[in-house]
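Forwarding the complex inputs:
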Amino acid sequence: MTALVIAEHKNSHVKGATLNTVTAAAATGGDVHVLIAGHNAGEAARQAAQITGVSTVLHVDAPGFEHGLAENVAAQVVALAAKYSHLVFPATASGKNVAPRVAALLDVAQVSDIIKVISPDTFQRPIYAGNAIATVQSADSVKVLTVRTTGFDAAAASGGSATVEKVDAVSSNCASSFVSAEIAKNDRPELTAAKIIVSGGRALGSSDKFEEVLTPLADKLGAALGASRAAVDAGYAPNDWQVGQTGKIVAPQLYIACGISGAIQHLAGMKDSKVIVAINKDPEAPIFSVADYGLEADLFTAVPDLVAAL
Amino acid sequence: MLKVLVPVKRVVDFNVKVRVKSDGTGVDIANVKMSMNPFDEIAVEEAVRLKEKGVVTEVIAVSCGVTQCQETLRTAMAIGADRAIFVETTEELQPLAVAKLLKALVDKEQPCLIILGKQAIDDDCNQTGQMLAALANLPQATFASKIEVADGGAFVTREVDGGLETLKVKLPAVVTTDLRLNEPRYVTLPNIMKAKKNPIEVLKPSELGVDVTPRIKTLKVSEPPQRSAGIKVPDVATLVSKLKNDAKVI
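Prediction (whole assembly, two chains):
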């Protein structure tokens, strides 16, 4: 029994989500192999070989893999699938894009967003944005899984010594092509990967205030910025900052909710955070019912005070 | 005739806090408000806008499941879909089965675009669009925040981790919607009344030659670990001290 982890990587390096996915794959009980499908991705393959717990790295290199197009990566994974009991993807934008394509081509179901491996065929996953946890069993011969990275510790990025095997690329009749990318080039961590998130609600009142009050706190903590749906709908923050049931689901070490009342759909997106701080002047705000530390105060004075005190 | 197929799912309304049944067999959805999956509403809106711009000529909404899904189809038609197909079954439908049903409908209707919500807010699977693309051997562009049809293809801007990416997909193609794609219009009463006259074709999975037997068995549904309220701190200094010394997170 061997699990194949489809690595999240940028050709020049392996991304952090791969490490949590290796831990989840190891929990299925067999050997763990890692696939690096990329272009000029030798360095990513070398890094993958050092991850603790990985016995073999499959490295396939071709121009069609440079941007991780789902059609190409899925065809490659399907070509390799026969040897594996589990095909394990991180539940990132790219993992979620490719995994179901693989599952359908193999005519098997997929178990999305697992947070726990109970046995090789049984897994736990959140449904209804985490308001319920389902324990599900797959009857298919190969299990296609995506892994919620916040549910598993990261495997050590060094200490391993896997062999790297070169694999021939399979061609797929790909009808899509990469045009361009605009990846935000700031020093702020990605919302879904951040250890600390500073998040703002409608109480901020304007996009200028949102920026002026919350940015210094986020800068000081090296945090990502998030927002409630109300703040996004009011135009105070961009949509891709939205934390909640229909936005991003996050579980950082520290989540600081500023002027967020705590609507159900927002709580669904952040209640798995390790420590939650709520700053709100309304003592009845529902956010206080999930906060480890609640500060009843006007955020326009409390947040600058907090920045000064750190 | 350029058609767009838009699958829509009937789900528990996003404002409802679901309760896990005490016997652990699922969540209690009796007597709760049901609505169209929010991402699917965005998909319908996008399809209707493409029609309004003259890019496509017909918008067909599809829903699979129990009888009440027809209400969801009526909503899709009130937004602007021209007609609807209802695949009726009381079987639990999992994404692979829905993708197979949709594949059969793609063969039948030959749409140039299939626009789906990226995920349903009940099972949170995020699978059906990608599975349909695989089964129909079509290109896919998931998590779209912008769609422009030009040169026999669609330029789709996708929300990826950390930013945006633009792909060109040849048509026909499968696109799944993210939140930023559009803001669905309010459905007006006259449009609801008008939509009642639009036709709904009713089919059974067997008529489409699809076996919808579930592949995944739900053994148990339980409450997530409950978070209890912590403490209120009197001032910023206490908060900082707690975060540094007790929680050790800064």
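The mean pLDDT of chain B is 95.
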